[in-house]
Design goal:
Helices cover 33% and strands 18% of the residues. The radius of gyration is 22 Å and the shape is elongated. It has 236 residues and is an alpha/beta fold. The two termini are 36 Å apart. The chain contains eight helices and ten strands. The protein folds into two domains: 155 residues, 3-Layer(aba) Sandwich (Alpha/beta knot); 65 residues, Orthogonal Bundle (Trp Operon Repressor, Chain A).
């Protein structure tokens, strides 16, 4: 069973959106497991801040920093096998997560995630535990909990027998470096705007060609970086 280990000071934030729809149903059916580790239960036990898990930054500055001692205590609650899993720390300075990353994580036994808060975590945590800093976009959140939910949802939907129609995954944006084509449903005409005739033709070959052409145009216009990757892949 695929498992997400999440270190957080706000375990009550979960499961959040992970508890609804097909992701929540898959959680109930034990197709995946959410292991929440409450960092507040692992104070440093040292000096005047013995009951805390954070402290002021060395060298001065605003905010508080998660103690490496507190994290070590929490991390040691994992099994020896889980300790070997890929470890992720969510940070705006990290590499931006991609669909390829999700495919990789979903193919593993699980993933361990650290959700920072306030000013962040002691750098020695990410260094010693060889955590990869990951970003979910060029913006700043109050903490990593929402980011963790995003990544977990993205992974769980890729697991076997979670999504009813596996073909929908194959057509996802970012698969093969292309953005998804436009989608339409009934009525055929809405406020003077019509569904493209080819989609009503019943000719599956023409429909496929039309959708592929749309994906090409949308990707080239909106994400030229992805388009270049697609072109390079087709040339090879």
């Amino acid at each position: 069973m695929w498992q997400a280990n999440v270190f957080t000071i706000f375990p009550d934030a979960f499961p959040g959106n992970l508890g609804v729809s097909v992701i929540g149903k898959a959680l109930e059916q034990k197709k995946w497991h959410l292991n929440l580790i409450d960092l507040k239960k692992f104070p440093t036990g040292d000096g005047p801040t013995a009951d805390r898990i954070d402290s002021a930054p060395c060298g001065g500055g605003a905010g508080m920093i998660l103690s490496p001692v507190a994290f070590e205590k929490a991390f040691n609650t994992l099994s020896e096998e889980e300790k070997k899993w890929k470890k992720v720390y969510f940070s705006p300075r990290g590499r931006q997560m991609t669909q390829s990353d999700l495919l990789d994580l979903a193919g593993r036994s699980g993933v361990t995630m650290l959700c920072g808060r306030y000013e962040g975590v002691d750098q020695r945590i990410t260094d010693f535990y060889e955590m990869e800093e990951i970003s979910v976009g060029d913006f700043v959140l109050l903490g990593g909990e929402v980011a963790a939910m995003m990544i977990i949802e993205g992974c769980v939907r890729l697991l076997p027998k979670v999504i009813g129609n596996s073909d929908s995954i194959a057509d996802d944006s970012f698969q093969n470096h292309l953005l998804e084509h436009d989608q339409y449903t009934k009525p055929n005409v809405f406020n003077g705007l019509s569904v493209p005739e080819v989609l009503l033709s019943g000719n599956h070959q023409k429909i496929h060609e039309f959708r592929l052409q749309q994906s090409h145009e949308i990707t080239r216009r909106r994400r030229p970086d992805l388009w270049m990757k697609y072109v390079e892949k087709m040339i090879r």
